Amino acid sequence: MPSPRRSGRAAVAPAATTMPTDAVVLRGLVRRFGERVVLDDLTLAVPAGASLVVFGPNGAGKSTLLRVLATLLRPHRGVVELLGEALPDRAWAVRSRVGLLTHEPLLYRDLSARENLRFHARLHGVGDDRIEELLEAVKLRVRANDPVHTYSRGMVQRAAVCRAVLHDPEILLLDEPLSNLDPAAIELVEPLIGRASGRTRIVTSHDPAGGLADGDLALGLRRGKQVLLRPAAEVSVDEIGELYR
Ligand SMILES: Nc1ncnc2c1ncn2[C@@H]1O[C@H](COP(=O)(O)OP(=O)(O)OP(=O)(O)O)[C@@H](O)[C@H]1O
């Protein structure tokens, strides 16, 4: 669960009156690259604490959707709201409440995991105890002072998971988060980025069975269009497979 650090915010704005039921809302989202429409009229809502798993073939728009939600790309049309704040105008108000884990680990390769985490911790006003807690959780302490470029891919991914959750974000944006992780490492990161974390999650996946088991809602994209949006428990593995044919 996100830790009680959030209680400081609640003292300023009581959660009961300001926390929207839906953590993520899209209404008619359009995003283009040049002439190409990459996200085409997406409309959905993700309740706070729920997980949306996004499926679709290469180039369908999954990563672009995550980048819009991470405030890295501006929407070209439609409404995008995170935690009740509309993007792009209120992006500054939500950035610190969102964690992003992508194929690009967003770590300095010549710094150690501990140095990388200290750098990000300072940006977010997070203390060293949180860094040590996370390094311990992903069993990286023994290598935490080695430069990231000496790590295996799984070790890099574990360090990237620490970076993504360092500031205890309410929303997690996860682009195939388990890639490069062995079964033991998957168990280690589950409490941090899995459903058990209690965070609102948008997760991309190419694994129909694993992805459906990981989500409350399933979204299927094909060439930027939303061709499936239903409770994950009601979607079959074959339906997800159809997206790729
Ligand atoms: N910076 C960019 N400039 C131009 N086109 C881009 C850019 N980034 C992505 N695209 C295009 O947007 C479309 C969607 O790409 P995106 O990376 O979102 O797909 P994806 O579903 O995440 O694919 P994958 O499964 O391969 O990761 C593709 O046609 C891609 O070429």
UniProtKB/TrEMBL annotation:
Gene3D superfamilies, per database record: P-loop containing nucleotide triphosphate hydrolases
Highest taxon of the lineage: Bacteria
Domain ABC transporter: 24-240
Lineage: Bacteria, Bacillati, Actinomycetota, Thermoleophilia, Solirubrobacterales
Name of the protein this chain belongs to: ABC transporter ATP-binding protein
UniProt keyword terms in alphabetical order: ATP-binding, Nucleotide-binding, Transport
UniProt-listed PROSITE patterns: ABC_TRANSPORTER_2
Transmembrane segments: none
Species assigned in the record: Paraconexibacter algicola
Any one GO MF annotation of this record: ATP hydrolysis activity
SUPFAM superfamilies documented for this protein: P-loop containing nucleoside triphosphate hydrolases (SSF52540)
